[in-house]
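Researcher: Here's the sequence for the chain we discussed earlier.
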Amino acid sequence: MPINVHREVPVDAIEEQNRIAEFLRPRLRERFHTPNPLAMVHTFGCQQNVADGEKLKGILAQMGFSFTGFPEQADLILFNTCAIRENAETKVFGNIGNLKQLKAAKPSMLIGICGCMTEQSHVVEKLKKSYPYVSFVFGSHSAYLLPSLVQCCLDEGKRIFRVAPDDGCVAEGIPAVREEGVKAWLPIMYGCDNFCSYCVVPYVRGRERSRRPERILAEFRELVETGYKDITLLGQNVNSYGKGLEEPVDFSSLLEQLNAVPGDFRIRFMTSHPKDCTHRLIDTIARCEKVCSHIHLPVQCGSSRILKEMNRHYDREGYLELVRYAREKIPGITFTSDIIVGFPGETYEEFQETLSLLREVKYVSLYTFIFSPRPGTKAAKLPDPVRGEEKGRWFRELLALQDEIGLEQMQPYIGQTVQVLAEDWGKVGDGLLQGRTESNLIVEFPGEPSLVGQFVQVKVRSVKKWALLGQLD
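Model: Thanks. This is the structure I predict for it:
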């Protein structure tokens, strides 16, 4: 079957997993000697992983589990992993190592590892050889099979490994246990076709496949009716939504459909690839009043030569043209971005091109990383003559400049009144609320917890490099 042709996991396969989940309820209560077995799901990495973790919790709830954040209380521990950088993998292995004594003290405990890391053969081999107390391992493409994996683990009394290559399917109808609050994550597509030379995502997440628009629309309406007011559409590259669907629908069309849903809410999206960020998409954002005037537009580097080496399919000038067009069409739009420092072969002069791009675009915030070689990617094989200490100096120079720019971007808001969706109370201090403007600026202000979930007017009194500080107007 051609790549990107849409297929869904058959309904009867999902129903079979539901039956197994129900069947396991009494067996798990008996195994753990409790009427209320507890599971801990620890998710590492991106928002897509967070959304996956919510579905894993939904499946575990079907199996009769409640949830805890404390490993010592858990009867089942599931690590939902990230493979985007080496230090992410190191952190996961460290956490798995910490479970050895816990498992020894509680032999009935089940430990599972899933997610992007487990789609890599070297990780699976390490789990097999070095972590014998791990009960089951499965890849992101097999998540819907969690009930049958647990059943096999119980029936066969041995470790289960279910890491299969991507079959291009989308599993629908999976329940989710979402975090309480006003924000929700809504995946609209999975995988990536870009094969950036530094990135492991296409190898661990598979090729791009889009959910049917009617499925997305139904879930979106449910989120709005439930009371979520800040809904983020997710995909490794949301801009390329629509590949493989029978009906002609792209990301702009999907945004228009979601914007038309009745209700008081905001729509955000990430991540957006510059090569697929079209003038039509920007015009759609400008037209749709519920779509936020903020774009996370990862540039990665300001040097056209390095962008070509990264296989990004755009150059510096093309990126800047997009930014200029968006600012012309959407007054008050803000940008955030990803930056990689020290890509193999990058010179200090080319790094300076990144700094000059920062000065021109003036991002409100950045996600910044020092290059991390990923096994299996083209960049991992490239000569990399710049020492780590030098890259560290470049990195600190980048952070210092962004701190200046961030503070500069916040200053004009002093004295202004902004609309804020109050999201959290007490997170940044007792008696303080935190929320965001529709242009994605963080705002902190005193108020009552009853305001969480409401749109309020806040007058800005002062600023920090990452936030506006104010009082209810």
